[in-house]
Amino acid sequence: MGFKKDFVWGIATAAYQVEGGYNQDGRGLSVWDNFSHTPEIVVDMHNGDTACDSYNRYKEDVALMKKIGVKAYRFSISWSRVLPCGTGKVNEKGLEYYDKLVDELIANGIEPYITLFHWDFPYALYKQGGWLNDKSPEWFAEYTKVVIERLSDRVKFWITQNEPQCYIDLGHSKGQHAPGLQLPWNEVLLAGRNSMLAHGRAVMTIRKYAKQSPIIGYAPCGSVAIPNTNSDEDIEAAVIDMFRPSQKSLFTISMLVDPVILGRYPEGAEEIYGEDLPILTDKQKEIMCQPLDFLGFNNYSGHKVYMNSEGEVCRVKKQVGRAQTAMEWDVMPEGIYWGPRLMSERYNLPFYITENGMANLDWKAQDGKIYDYQRIDFTSRYLANYRKLASEGVDLRGYFHWSLLDNFEWKLGYSRRFGMVYVDFETGERTLKESAYWYNKVISSNGEDLSL
Description:
alpha/beta, TIM Barrel, eight-stranded parallel β-barrel, 13 strands, 38% helix, globular, cellulose degradation
């Protein structure tokens, strides 16, 4: 027994990372446009102005997906392409782009999975306070309504937000991502609260205005706690490590997930954050805790933990010379087993891996091919662990590889390559890597053939 017969094999991208066309056809600026043009922020002064030029080459990209054999494409919509000022006047040409992309996907037998927000907050609204403004949930609901009214006659699958841990924590606390702020924790947590309220407002809006029965999810991320052994004690240590805050970091998965699924902050949050933690009113809990149809999770790495003789959770010391990707993330295939397992037990929702993949330093060989065998080996190891979990009866619905294309990798610019398709960023030329052909075999066998 492995993956279900209707298991969804997909691939994913994000608007700012692939679209380009930053000033084309009336698109407004996002915080990432501003952030990437700030001196000494992004590697080699790269930016997403052109990215992969998917705004103009979407038909070519869909044709590549069809060649790979993927059944679903997870992509995000640029809020400021649809609403240049974030609210108010709709940009018809921006909507037309997504109209055409959806139609092209469907014509090629590829199911669209739309993420409404993947970090590119409209700059015009950022100037009004961004996620710190208590009106931001209403702004997000207005944007959601525009998209739903236009695309929901053909699109069933919706993800409200991608990795709130990154755009709230890295963007508002550590200053490493847009908008590049280093705020005190009371303001960081306020932004997080408003983001979760925006998620809830979006779910309500989708259900109210969708033209066919919608299937709605949420896509957090985090480092998975992997039990060092299968003992009950070490498994309990992993649960505690993943879900009980022990330090001020929103990368404790539960901090931005428990409120939207369980209607409360996790146990231990008040102890860690004290008076900085916003009080959630009953009305706010009701808004953010809307029924979901599935939970997504973006999994790349993990860390091992154990319970010591005194009942304390400890992290296993990392090995010298351990396997790492070009992002310097540890290769931990067991994470794609334990993350979904522990999250499914806690949240009791059908599950998707909405991102998984690895950055590499790929280049074109002398014969014109891209021999990314490390990516094949990485993905094979992770999928074997995911298949093991499926065989145990956990309700796994799908897997989305990150990413279709080498793209703009945020602060690292174009210096890291995540794609199964190689992109020449000077010419825009696309070339399928060996991993793309391998993934076609995996999909054709429904994950039974993971051989290298």
